[in-house]
Design brief:
Protein name: Terpenoid synthase
Pfam families: Terpene_syn_C_2
CATH topology: Farnesyl Diphosphate Synthase
CATH superfamily: Farnesyl Diphosphate Synthase
Structural class: mainly alpha
Radius of gyration: 22 Å
Order of helices and strands: EEEEHHHHHHHHHHEHEHHH
Shape: globular
Helix content: 55-70%
Strand order of the largest sheet: 1-4
Distance between the termini: 38 Å
InterPro entries: Isoprenoid_synthase_dom_sf (IPR008949)
Keywords: Coiled coil
Length: 395
């Protein structure tokens, strides 16, 4: 089934929104608070989907959070961005019959993140294990909470949500569905595996990508676009080379999304640090003193303090450096795509000389190009959304 029609977004466009008031609605003009500074284009299918996206979001919020809870308030706020719906942008190329499921999966993970970061580490591990059992009940022994062990109030709702969406995914395509659910189980198990602190950005980025559930997002994107790509077990040299390039493309696009989020979210997240009473300075020479005031929670991940620590620079310099790094990653992604197109041409020549059926190769090439464009859309959507959302800025 084809995707919904989509359109390009102009990132500097002024928006006019209507806010309710006690007397009469007030129309307010808003501009992006911080410029969208990367070159990846942003698309959205939101206008073409009717109420599909909003209904999927509302259903997931209702199932996975309690009325009045912090997680539910955060979920509702997440979708008050006047510049566009995150999922309508990120999954603008998804097929119509799979978009709703993709939206529900991502909203579930966002709510889960808000819930789990409030729990003690050991409890978060236990509850992730419970959810994994729901995804794959035949491969796990029944897990029970011990006497006196706490359980979050929304866990039962999340379990019911996963039972329902598991049935939906398997009904669409059992083989693809089992692969997708197995990868969701994998990402849930990896969520709490990161160190409490990082000494260098090179050490931090792989964990940040995992923390973002990026590799599950990649697979979900492929599933939602109904795309088949080369298997990592392929024995041909040309296919293995292409697989490696695909992995690099996924990694770099994930770095753009994760580090872009770090850049825009830092002003909010730094208030979740615990500040000591020592005096600070904005100068680079006092960066160690400045950083020592910030005691990072083991549940918050951001590249700004990593760069401060790694290079002994101030918070301001670290944020400037992070912006430059994100731009460099976009340039790497654009160069990598050019290289992949060259590799596709080489694979085409090899296939032609080996009498490989042309239709198979054409399908592979078309699917790969769509997937790369889809990854660019997801990364661009997340960075743009972070640059505009009320979660990080008050309009």
């Amino acid at each position: 089934m084809a995707p919904f029609p989509s359109e390009l977004i102009e990132p500097t466009k002024t928006h006019h929104i209507t806010k309710p008031s006690s007397s009469k609605p007030v129309t307010t003009t808003v501009n992006p608070q911080t410029p969208y500074f990367i070159s990846l284009p942003i698309r959205t299918c939101e206008k073409s989907t009717g109420s599909l996206i909003s209904d999927a979001i509302s259903s997931t919020i209702s199932s996975c959070s309690l009325p009045g809870s912090r997680a539910q308030r955060a979920a509702i706020q997440r979708h008050t961005n006047p510049f566009g719906n995150l999922y309508g942008m990120a999954f603008s190329l998804s097929e119509q019959d799979r978009l709703e499921v993709a939206v529900k999966f991502i909203e579930f993970l966002c709510i889960l993140d808000d819930v789990m970061e409030e729990l003690p580490y050991e409890q978060a591990i236990r509850e992730h294990e419970i959810l994994c059992q729901v995804l794959n009940p035949t491969s796990h022994e029944s897990f029970m909470f011990g006497v006196g062990e706490p359980e979050s109030e929304c866990l039962e709702g999340m379990k019911r949500f996963l039972i329902d969406i598991r049935e939906t995914v398997l009904s669409l395509n059992p083989e693809q569905g089992h692969i997708l659910l197995a990868d969701l189980e994998r990402t849930l198990r990896q969520r709490e595996c990161a160190p409490a602190s990082f000494g260098a950005l090179e050490e931090y980025v792989p964990y940040r990508i995992v923390n973002l559930d990026w590799y599950f997002v990649c697979l979900l994107l492929r599933w939602s676009m109904n795309i088949s790509l080369p298997s990592p077990s392929s024995s041909s040299t040309s296919s293995s080379s292409l697989d490696s390039l695909i992995n690099d493309f996924e990694y770099i696009s994930g770095a753009i999304a994760g580090l872009g989020n770090d850049y825009y979210s830092w002003n909010r997240e730094k208030h979740q640090f615990q500040f000591q009473s020592t005096e600070s300075s904005d100068s680079d020479s006092d960066s160690d003193s400045e950083l020592s005031e910030m005691q990072l929670s083991d549940r918050i991940m951001n590249a700004v303090p990593v760069l401060m620590r790694q290079h002994s620079i101030s918070e301001v310099r670290a944020k400037e450096s992070l912006k430059e790094i994100v731009v460099q990653q976009v340039e790497r992604l654009e160069e990598l795509r050019k290289g992949m197109e060259v590799e596709l041409e080489r694979s085409s020549a090899i296939a032609t000389s080996s009498s490989v059926i042309g239709g198979d190769l054409d399908e592979l090439e078309e699917g790969l190009k769509r997937y790369l464009t889809g990854l660019e859309c997801v990364a661009a959507a997340y960075v743009y959304w972070c640059s505009t959302c009320p979660r990080y800025y008050v309009f």
